[in-house]
Amino acid sequence: MKLDPILAPSLLAGDHADLGGSALAVPNHGLKWLHLDIMDGHFVPNLTFGPEVLAALRRRPELADTFFDTHLMLSEPANYIEAFAKAGSDLISIHIEPEYDHAATLADIRKLDCQNGIVLNPGTPVSAIEPFIDQVDLVLVMTVQPGFGGQSFREDMVPKLQQIDAWREERALNFRLEVDGGVDLTTGPLCRAAGADTFVAGTAFFKAEDRTAFVASVDHW
Ligand code: DX5
Ligand code: ZN
Known about the structure:
about 220 residues, alpha/beta, TIM Barrel, eight-stranded parallel beta sheet, 8 strands, globular, binds zinc ion
């Protein structure tokens, strides 16, 4: 059973001098999900923003109903899940690559009344996340090396989506399957056909020539 497609614009591609204004494009286009890329300059070679920024966005009345899909690209995510949950995250996804107790941290995210997700980088085999797919609300497959927006989509990641989608079907699991990195009018349909249902788009959304047309296209991927 295919889940309805969700487009999650990534604020990374917004105006970092006016993140609140950029975030309003989500409700203004009738979208629910906002993707927030949190980077520590250690797990990935870039720095973005922390819980205080997320809390300030959460206080914006226009964003009260926006789903904060929070992608932690951190070496020690367990140290930050409470801060991001309290700041107003709706879902917190954590990477499989750093060494920490993944199962315990995933459970802790749910104890904080947040949905949870597990994320894998392009160089990580899909087998690394298999043990966790029955305890998550979302699996995020990185289709670029995390750290920066505007990179080219890695088509060699498509078989990972097919494999995870097959496991989901076989085991009657209902997590969302999200892709992040280089998702646009061309690559989005490829990902949808491979089983993805949740699409992070930074550049393709915030730098779109016709944003309304891009948003409308997602339902037909
Ligand atoms: C990876 C980031 C980016 C961003 C999307 O570091 O997670 O993938 O969200 O970037 P675009 O859509 O511009 O490739
Ligand atoms: Zn992301």
